[in-house]
Amino acid sequence: MSNTIGHIFRLTSFGESHGEAVGDIIDGCPSGLKLDVAEVQRELDRRRPGQSDLTTARNEADQVRFLSGIMDGETTGTPLAFVVNNNNQHSKDYSDIKDLFRPSHADYTYQTKYGIRDYRGGGRTSARETISRVVAGAVAKQVLSQIGVHVYAYTSQVGSIALDKDYKKYSPEKIETNAVRCPDEAKAEEMAALIREVKADGDTIGGVITCVATGVPAGWGEPVFDKLHAALGSAVLSINACKGFEYGSGFDVDGRGSLVNDVFVVKDGKVTTKTNNSGGIQGGISNGQDIYFRAAFKPVATVLKEQDTINKDFQETKIKVHGRHDPCVLPRAVPVVEAMTAMTLLDFYLLSKSINRNS
Amino acid sequence: MSNTIGHIFRLTSFGESHGEAVGDIIDGCPSGLKLDVAEVQRELDRRRPGQSDLTTARNEADQVRFLSGIMDGETTGTPLAFVVNNNNQHSKDYSDIKDLFRPSHADYTYQTKYGIRDYRGGGRTSARETISRVVAGAVAKQVLSQIGVHVYAYTSQVGSIALDKDYKKYSPEKIETNAVRCPDEAKAEEMAALIREVKADGDTIGGVITCVATGVPAGWGEPVFDKLHAALGSAVLSINACKGFEYGSGFDVDGRGSLVNDVFVVKDGKVTTKTNNSGGIQGGISNGQDIYFRAAFKPVATVLKEQDTINKDFQETKIKVHGRHDPCVLPRAVPVVEAMTAMTLLDFYLLSKSINRNS
Amino acid sequence: MSNTIGHIFRLTSFGESHGEAVGDIIDGCPSGLKLDVAEVQRELDRRRPGQSDLTTARNEADQVRFLSGIMDGETTGTPLAFVVNNNNQHSKDYSDIKDLFRPSHADYTYQTKYGIRDYRGGGRTSARETISRVVAGAVAKQVLSQIGVHVYAYTSQVGSIALDKDYKKYSPEKIETNAVRCPDEAKAEEMAALIREVKADGDTIGGVITCVATGVPAGWGEPVFDKLHAALGSAVLSINACKGFEYGSGFDVDGRGSLVNDVFVVKDGKVTTKTNNSGGIQGGISNGQDIYFRAAFKPVATVLKEQDTINKDFQETKIKVHGRHDPCVLPRAVPVVEAMTAMTLLDFYLLSKSINRNS
Amino acid sequence: MSNTIGHIFRLTSFGESHGEAVGDIIDGCPSGLKLDVAEVQRELDRRRPGQSDLTTARNEADQVRFLSGIMDGETTGTPLAFVVNNNNQHSKDYSDIKDLFRPSHADYTYQTKYGIRDYRGGGRTSARETISRVVAGAVAKQVLSQIGVHVYAYTSQVGSIALDKDYKKYSPEKIETNAVRCPDEAKAEEMAALIREVKADGDTIGGVITCVATGVPAGWGEPVFDKLHAALGSAVLSINACKGFEYGSGFDVDGRGSLVNDVFVVKDGKVTTKTNNSGGIQGGISNGQDIYFRAAFKPVATVLKEQDTINKDFQETKIKVHGRHDPCVLPRAVPVVEAMTAMTLLDFYLLSKSINRNS
What we know:
The structure is a homotetramer.
Chain A: E1 4-5, E2 10-14, E3 21-27, H1 37-46, E4 64-66, E5 70-71, E6 74-75, E7 80-85, E8 100-101, H2 107-114, H3 130-146, E9 150-158, E10 161-162, H4 185-200, E11 207-214, H5 228-237, E12 242-247, H6 257-260, E13 264-267, E14 270-273, E15 281-282, E16 285-286, E17 291-297, E18 307-311, E19 316-319, H7 330-355
Antiparallel strand pairs in A: 1-2, 2-3, 3-7, 4-7, 5-6, 8-18, 9-10, 9-11, 11-17, 12-17, 13-14, 15-16, 18-19
Helix pairs in contact in A: 1-3, 3-7, 5-7
């Protein structure tokens, strides 16, 4: 609850942006995994600030360090704890906004809820919190990989520059060829240009991330309230700045049932469907087809322009935020979306072992 | 898990469409509520089949009967169990599809997961399961009403006939004036005509429901993984046929941060925001503004046209479903969306009493 | 939480003694079980009032009726709901104690917690609530039986009349030969005589139940906080009137480590231990030996003698309870202890399938 | 689950004895607590090895370091993470038992469950894991103290040397006057002599700890399965080496109901009971009287004598353990029992704020 997610594979997260460290305890990771820590670090580097001119200029090394749960390189089934130290904080950047509520941030809501808030860099509400997610997701990916499940995501829209919704038109190999993490190179350049323009203006822009999971067998997901897509939706919506989630045909609701229905066919002796408007999930349970969904992200709330706001005494005033911020969260959010997806899938795989017949 | 939802106010649901009854246990309902059972029944009547020519012709009386948790009309704090008998099943309608997997239904996934499925009327995957949701939501609404929180939803799109996204343009009083549950009467007629046309064709159509909660004070919602919108998203996505969820600005991602941000202002001594692109939730916690979201529903999978499919021996064949089905789920899904929203809000209100400072 | 127990195999219970029914939803029962409902009823009959002169004279038929989760006699993996109607209530027996707090009952604590209480027959705090447990336990036993796990319990002490602590001295076949459910016939007669004497005096007496589970393989139980014995302890302590739990050597703490330690030996190619002071559980995980524990039950709080007490206005007064009550809860608690044990073991078996290597 | 305990105030623990650190995330600690870290350290020092000649000679400094959740000395409502480094491990002490299953340890069960075990110092099964409990308990105590709730425990039995069961005969001020943590000085000396004798013999001895909570108001505890004593039982039984739990009259079952019942009386305008055989809990809910219970601890499994055992190839062999071990766990377990009690009470206090009428 609150800072814990998952049923069997469970992540419990801690840390503020300007505290000593952020980190996590992963409970329920299967024993016997030869954990490739370098690979975990590579995933973490994908969300690292300062990786291109499209992201914040903050340069955070973000080295993951595991404290438990591993012996001789192998997971033991006991909790995997890890920390990532906070090394590059500029806490004084924030002293002048200590008593102000930044528009569309969580300053006001945290203050109201808790009677106190860590105003330095957003405290717990900082996107540094997603470090925990990426590390746990990287561990989950390694387990999933052993059973043939792979997850990838990409930036499919920035502002109004959008790819086609059909993920099959794009090759996952192209995603990491550019800083936007968009598999269409021409569109990627347009998106990058837009992000630079917005950045130069001290402003920010949002977009959409598409995510795909391949190799998921039929039978993962729990009716009625723990439907697989409901869990994926919750996991992805819990990411900072995420405002929407749709899977399969999603908000495209103008087709008729007879056309939208996914007809079953048998191909090479295996059940498959002619179309996949279901997004790989029927009745909340995976059906063996690709799982895919789209997630909307709003523009980063921190703009470098002066804005109206109020202070903690409820007086109207002006605010102008300094510091180093992302003009667009999308490129760095791609690995976070993958991570939440991988964790959720692994959790439901482990659940299915308890619940499914002949598992 | 699975058939239970909620932390403090918890619903556990049971029942198949062609079993003896559907029903539910509500645990965590506050004691001392003078439960208006007639009002619960009125809510349930809103989801009842056969209420207009736009819905299925099945005529299910669906009378709710409480078995526990109430003394002299008042809740005692112990579990509220209720049942709604299944009276109008035509199980023989389904015998000819016993061995077939209906396209875009959960037949195949249930069979794969459990090695058995109740094929009569969809069994557990039938929308009759939403009876439990509506009853529990009706109870939640009565508790919320005492603290000034109100929830309403309406059909905002059918096929490509759509209202403006701004819910403030529409009056909640108009919702129940027509069978579509659309507060714009002209659009409602267009939608009704489309539904009738689709129905006449043996086909089905999807759409969008918009939901609004007013009166929610600042401070409900739990970071990091139990953000209020993530819980709402999960609850709503768990409804049969729901394919997408967006709150506030949602998938409208082409605005820049400086314009999308909700500037704080003080009005009559109270904190409010000039705009409400946040949808009433910031950092996962309610900020005192209206909460609003949109939910996408696919066309009902049961069409009365012949379709290709496979049987349980994985042979390709044809299927033609008979029986009485909804051509469009939207009108009857409106109270279900309200119910999931009310339950989730009440649950987070109760949690906030444990967690918030000075609560 | 509260009225729900279990992780995967989960029981959610409802009902007051003088409401319409008591019952339950079992979520997580494996699909494909040919449920023997008659056998479930037989287990329920073991806790039935009026079965001998040692129990209350109330004659409650207590017929279990399943409402969902079964098709053609086989569980489908969806929730098993059941109800047992309340048919033999004498609510008027309780009207004169409506405003009194019975000593050592839960009247005062419920009133304080909820501001209301169902005073008729103890309401939710009545031992009728254990019907739910016995039914769910009977289902669990049938699943466990398929993998060779069997659970039995017996009355091992009434007042100061006690069996030897070593359960191996007693044959489980003897348990049902007498109304006390004590496998030593001579002691059973002494116990029965004591219970009759106490009953004649309008008084009550407590005792101890011993429970044994055979056939549990090594590897069930979750460290650190969900140790198998901690879960068993919690499950058993949650039974009305239970005041203590000890497993293995328990409160016998005067032996030295070198003597108490269970030495591993190999017998017929299988690992076993020479002694079993660990009670079949080491480090919170089953080790393949018999699991056994003892549970203490206080005398029933309802005595038929006049007692001092206070009323709801906090004035001192006298109370004299009428009605039909058990002089000794032990004989009817035996199936309840077995039920909680079976449910807990099944839950941890299902969890082990998710978690254990090579499961 | 597994490595997490609690509903609202939740502890998630990690760490092996010979890893880099042990530690914990506390989620749900109320905001606004001026955390006295020095006081937390003092509690931790009470469980420190090497504090007297009755405990292991290992000298572990065990300094607690908080990584998050605190700003300017005040809790912020976000997770409190802490670590305690492992500094004094002698891993080589264990290399010769790498392939042996120590009698009555968790070596065999972990190996069976996970297919791997960290054999160094017991790994996750080491009592170093209780560091997390003591730190979290120390935080809980500080919150409880603000509402007048205090918890203390003491050694009430070592081997067959036992105090009277009535805790009112002993003054909590005397507990820390001796290394055994026994409030009766004469008995404490006897116990100390016994422990020294056992230690000299390379052997170990068990005992009983009594725990008392004062100031708990009526109304904490959740029926039916989350009864307050069931939760306390589970929490305490989850401590290493704990074999039994009884509260109130517990296993003393020879009294009749008319004598054991706690008669309500009014004293100074407040409801109280003449006796307290209920141990402060009725129907699973606190009744305003002192809560008290007893917990049995077996002798430490690590004896320094040669014992029979088997190796991982299931061959019979001998084992002789070296290293520095406690001859009696009781003195150092006292703060652990207090910690589990404080955490459980705080958790149920926070729950009661959600659930109780007029809370």
